[in-house]
Amino acid sequence: MKRGVSGKGAKAGLALTRSVCYIVLILLSLLCIFSFYFLIVNASRPHAEIMSELSLSPGKYLFKNLSNLLADKNISLLRGLFNSLFISACTAALTSYFSAMTAYGIYAYNFRFKKAAFTFIMMIMMVPTQVSAVGFIQLVSGMGLMDTFYPLILPSIAAPVVFYFMKSYMESVLPLEIVEAARVDGSNEFMTFNRIILPVIKPALAVQAIFSFVANWNNYFTPQLIINSDKNKTIPILIAQLRSADYMKFDLGMVYIMIFVAIIPLLIVYIFLSKYIIKGLTLGSVKG
Amino acid sequence: MPEKTERKTHRSVSYAKWGYFFIAPFFAVFIVFQLIPLLSTFYYSLFEYYRVGLKQIGPNFVYFKNYIEVLTGEMPEYALNTLIIWIMGFIPQILVSMLLAVWFTSYRLKLRGQRFFKTVIYMPNLIMASALAMLFFMLFSPVGPVNQMLTEWGIIDQSILFFNIPITARAIIAFMNFLMWFGNTTILLMAGIMGIDQNLFETAQIDGAKPFMIFIKITLPLLMPILVYVLITSMIGGIQMFDIPQVMTNRLGTPDRTTMTLIMYLNRHLTSKNLGLGGAVSVIVFIMTSILSVFVYSSLMRNYRIPREKAGTALFGKTKQKQSEVEVI
């Protein structure tokens, strides 16, 4: 330790480096927060004020803007919220359950095509959903499912990335002796999975359900291809619709409150769940 | 003895069948909703098949005419746009993430409030991209807060029309991509650094290596696999860039189509029901991502070449073990 020779100098140097780190971190945090701060500020101000001048402190118009938006007949906000919530909740449940089921099938049993099945799922993991959209639309309209929620919910049963996460998680926490013990007790395999395995992998299920919920809440590409009637529109579609309308004619307070509704509830949930979310990230996606 | 063996074999065979039962839903849904659409997309790409008003043209088999049309037409331009915007976002992303990951994992610095900072920088990743695009469209609009601020501070006299200038329009999209992904990358890289044998750092420090040298000689080379993983997955994500430019430019890729991305182009064919051209664009994008995916695939499968028990440790053991030493969050 060359620096260690002069203890004081090293300490001062370290303190300086540390302050630089903190300044950079604070600036980056501000960068992350500033746009949302403006969102809150402008969502709580009336149209005329937003147009005329800049403000750094929130106004008192939040609920007025919100009730204006709810009263607007062209934007069915509540309907959109319900649709988004419904689709996201269904996909979250299906994705986590069926991915765990698939992962368990490959993890716990030695069947003939086990390796082939695993390799296959790994190979299709990175295929973007967009590239099969042409055929997907044709298929969905052939099935008569256009403008319904089925094509947005059912495909989530096959989620290779979630499968990979679940399988890795099982390898680290699930001893097969549990399964053996259940067999001795005469438990049916499917019951064993539902009653014994699922509780053990609950943390993984929760993390993947959260991620899947968020991904579907935010999803814009597939819904905009499938949904066309007003009553079935999801929040991202309503946002895009807001942009394609001539926004200068709009009440800007309402535009901001609409973005607010799309973003802020999720942020609040995130603040409570962030610990699990960030931990889940490092568990699932690091492959050294 | 023989009797026992026989019974054992019999038992394992009867249970093995359950494997098919458990993986059946995945494969059934995959085949119906992904494989069949993918194959039919390939099929449509060879046909002239579109709609003019109410009139349906085709399907007429035209060999590779659609591919020639998109490749000699607008597609290269849009591929270039996508690449430029991706690079503009990725370079700051990887640099900032690397810096933060090294800082957060440094024993020497022992930064406080890590959990807070990680929570904040990861936050934008969960935001609805379309809503973020709309928000930035409002913030940077001629009467938006950014222009108001710049005018108030006397930096400009007239509002800057950010969305009418190619470089600023692209930069705003790239900035949103950066904002959404640098926290995620930071956390991935941190986990990677914590997976490195800590003795190496200590030994180097005792030998008098400066932090920068430690970074160049130890951290960077050992982190290479994860860096490659981050690079490739980010590229694949970049190719799929859609929501932000689509909503921000109201699907037009303004100004002058300089922010039109590959998937926006594909989406245009999808909404105008041109299955032939849409199919050709899809297949080309599919090939591009497949080539990139090979790298991801091989890096993930490396874990499974080592014996089974070790594979689990490689994925979780290390992170968990290090958790006790350095708090992950």
- CATH secondary-structure class of the largest domain in chain A: Mainly Alpha
Please give the number of β-strands of chain B: 2
Q: Biggest β-sheet of chain A, characterized?
A: none
Order of helices and strands of chain A: HHHHHHHHHHHHHH
Number of strands of chain A: 0
Task: Describe it.
The complex is a heterodimer of chains A (288) and B (329). Chain A is mainly α. Chain A folds into 2 domains: 60 residues; 171 residues, Orthogonal Bundle (MetI-like fold). Chain A is built from 14 helices and no strands. The longest helix of chain A is centred in the N-terminal third of the chain and has 37 residues. The radius of gyration of chain A is 25 Å and the shape is globular. In chain A, 43% of the residues are buried. Chain B has 2 domains: 38 residues; 262 residues, MetI-like (MetI-like fold, Orthogonal Bundle). In chain B, strand 1 and strand 2 form a beta hairpin. Chain B has 13 helices and 2 strands. In chain B, helix 1 packs antiparallel against helix 12, helix 2 crosses helix 12 and helix 11 crosses helix 12. Chain B has 329 residues and is mainly alpha-helical. At the A-B interface, helix 1, helix 4, helix 5, helix 6 and helix 8 of A face helix 1, helix 3, helix 4, helix 5 and helix 6 of B.
Q: What is this structure's SSE topology?
A:
The complex is a heterodimer of chains A (288) and B (329).
Chain A: H1 7-43, H2 47-52, H3 62-71, H4 77-108, H5 114-123, H6 133-142, H7 150-153, H8 160-173, H9 177-184, H10 189-200, H11 202-218, H12 221-226, H13 235-244, H14 252-285
Chain B: H1 2-44, E1 47-52, E2 55-61, H2 65-72, H3 75-105, H4 114-122, H5 129-139, H6 145-152, H7 166-194, H8 198-206, H9 211-239, H10 243-248, H11 262-271, H12 275-301, H13 308-325
Antiparallel strand pairs in B: 1-2
